[in-house]
Write a structure and sequence with these properties.
6-stranded antiparallel β-sheet; 170 residues; alpha+beta; 39% strand; 5-stranded antiparallel β-sheet
C-alpha cells in the first residue's frame, strides 16, 4: 500500500509539474523586423514595403515585401515580415498597383523588432513618412491615390526623423 501511495504521489507531482511548465512558458521574441500597417482600403490591391538596410543603399526589387490586400470597409492590419537578416534604415511603402484613385485611410503604423516597438498614429504618421505626387492628403490619415499623365506610383518614403528614431530605438 505504501509503495502504491508513493508511486501515485510521484505521478501526481509529475503531472502538476508538466502542467505548470506549459502555462508559464513564454514564446521567444521573433528577431525579425515587422511593419504592421493598420489601414482601410475599399478595393483589392497589392501593397509593397521596400527597405534599405545599408547606409548608402538604394531601393531595389530584391529588398521588398509584397502583400495582397482584400478590400474592406473596415480597418485591417497588413503585416510585412522582413527577412531574418534585414536591419532596415529606411522604408518606402507603395500603397497600390491597380491604378485605383480611391482613398486609403491610415490608422496606425507599427515597426517592431523583438520586444521593441515604434508606433505612429494618423496624427504623427506625417512626421515619419512623406508622400509623393501620386498621393494627396485629404485630412489626417486619409490619402487619395492619383493618376497623373497616365502614370501611377503612390508611395510614402521614410523621413530623416524616422531614420533617427530607428537608430535610437533599435
Amino acid at each position: 500500500m505504501c509503495a502504491k501511495f508513493k508511486l501515485l504521489n510521484k505521478l501526481f507531482l509529475l503531472v502538476v509539474f508538466f502542467i505548470s511548465c506549459g502555462t508559464n512558458e513564454k514564446r521567444p521574441q521573433e528577431n525579425i523586423f515587422k511593419v504592421i500597417l493598420t489601414v482601410k482600403v475599399i478595393e483589392d490591391d497589392k501593397f509593397q514595403l521596400f527597405y534599405i538596410d545599408s547606409a548608402n543603399g538604394k531601393y531595389n526589387e530584391r529588398d521588398v515585401v509584397s502583400v495582397n490586400v482584400e478590400g474592406s470597409q473596415d480597418f485591417q492590419s497588413i503585416v510585412f515580415k522582413l527577412p531574418l537578416k534585414a536591419f532596415p534604415r529606411q522604408f518606402r511603402i507603395d500603397i497600390g498597383e491597380n491604378k485605383i484613385e480611391s482613398p486609403v485611410e491610415i490608422d496606425t503604423l507599427k515597426i517592431m523588432f523583438g520586444s521593441k516597438k515604434l508606433v505612429m498614429n494618423n496624427m504623427t504618421f506625417n512626421r515619419f513618412f512623406k508622400h509623393n505626387v501620386y498621393i494627396e492628403e485629404n485630412e489626417h490619415g486619409i490619402y487619395s491615390r492619383r493618376i497623373i499623365n497616365k502614370k501611377y506610383d503612390p508611395f510614402f518614403s521614410s523621413t530623416e526623423f524616422l531614420k533617427k528614431h530607428l537608430e535610437l530605438k533599435f
